[in-house]
Specification:
The chain is an alpha/beta fold. It has helices at residues 47-64, 81-91, 122-137, 153-156, 173-179, 182-203, and strands at residues 25-30, 68-71, 95-102, 114-118, 144-149, 162-169.
């Protein structure tokens, strides 16, 4: 699986799985924001910028499929963790997906890879598996760090199946080079949207 077959990769909503329109409500949480830029990587690549861009594309793709989507932040605002959870819990979202980019301690350039965390329950695990499967497909060569149980506040305190997706290391040589490219970010967004839709098809 190399990049040659990604050149013809279709990042169009029409090629995504279909779900019943106006049935589902999804909250997408772009990590960090505002004065909290999150991880800072190679050539000043900022986690907050990468994940906001990806999240907006996920929103656009899911909306085209008739899914109601809300972003916890639409711009560079400083948003604490509990309001992110409140948005999801108050509105009775079907799922909550927090999007992040990793940084290694000591900014080791040889550490790359993608992983997805869920807190508990088979639904959370299934959602994490569906997303992980798709993001790995568009990131050939970057290690599959797998689906893992995690205790992050935003996935622990939400009332619905929730996952935290790490779309690569801004400090990793391979990942950073990709994450700074708009086209790769679109592919990652497409992959996350596809994983979400596959999950909604299963549980819908």
């Amino acid at each position: 699986n190399n990049f040659s077959n990604l050149r013809t990769f279709n990042i169009d909503a029409s090629s995504l799985p279909n779900v019943k329109r106006n049935k589902f409500y999804v909250v997408i949480d772009p990590g960090h924001g505002g004065i909290d830029a999150g991880a800072i990587g190679i050539r000043g690549l900022r986690e907050t910028d990468v994940v906001l861009d990806v999240s907006k594309t996920v929103q656009r793709l899911l909306s085209k499929k008739g899914v109601n989507v809300r972003l916890t932040r639409k711009g560079e605002i400083d948003l604490d963790l509990s309001p992110r959870v409140t948005i999801a819990n108050r509105t009775g979202a079907d799922i909550f997906v927090s999007i992040h980019a990793n940084a290694s301690r000591g900014k080791k350039k040889d550490i790359n890879g993608l992983e997805t965390f869920y807190y508990s329950g088979w639904r959370g695990k299934l959602l994490a598996e569906k997303i992980q499967q798709e993001i790995i497909r568009v990131s050939p060569g970057s290690p599959d760090r797998g689906v893992r149980s995690g205790r992050y506040f935003v996935i622990r305190k939400t009332n619905m199946p929730a996952v935290l997706v790490e779309i690569g290391f801004v400090t990793g040589k391979l990942d950073a080079r990709r994450l700074e490219k708009p086209l790769h970010r679109k592919r990652v967004a497409y992959a996350i949207a596809k994983g979400i839709l596959k999950y909604l098809q299963r549980v819908g």
